[in-house]
Amino acid sequence: MLAFMLLQAAAGAAFGTFGAAIGAALAAFAAGYGIGKVGSSAIDGIARQPEATGNIRSTTIIVAGMIEGACLLAVITCLLAIVMK
């Protein structure tokens, strides 16, 4: 009976760690996808209106930084979930 309870506790901890690792991977993937979309839209905008290059570039940098910040927060949260288990 005790061995069964220990196996259940170990399996639950493993699934929690696996879930946190998947969460960190999804956050990194979503950030990469988001920054790719922002960069693609910026290139399209610059191609259509070359005179607005400065405004588009600064907005792109700000948005990419915000996406990276959200991704970093998500990855740190997932890593803390792994460490705290």
Task: Give keywords.
85 residues; mainly alpha; F1FO ATP Synthase; 93% helix; elongated
The number of distinct structural domains comes to: 1
**Rg over CA atoms:** 20 Å
Low-confidence stretches: none
Distance between the termini: 23 Å
Overall geometric form: elongated
Instruction: Give the SSE order as H and E letters.
Output: HH
* CATH homologous superfamily label: F1F0 ATP synthase subunit C
Largest sheet: none
- According to CATH, what is the class? Mainly Alpha
Helix content: over 70%
- Structural class from helices and strands? mainly alpha
Mean pLDDT: 85
CATH architecture heading: Up-down Bundle
**DSSP strand count:** 0
CATH topology: F1FO ATP Synthase
Total helical elements: 2
Strand content: under 5%
Account of the protein in words:
This protein has 2 helices and no strands. It has 85 residues and is mainly alpha-helical. It has one domain: F1F0 ATP synthase subunit C (F1FO ATP Synthase). The longest helix is centred in the first third of the chain and has 47 residues, at 2-48. The protein is elongated and about 55 Å long. It starts with a helix and ends with a helix.
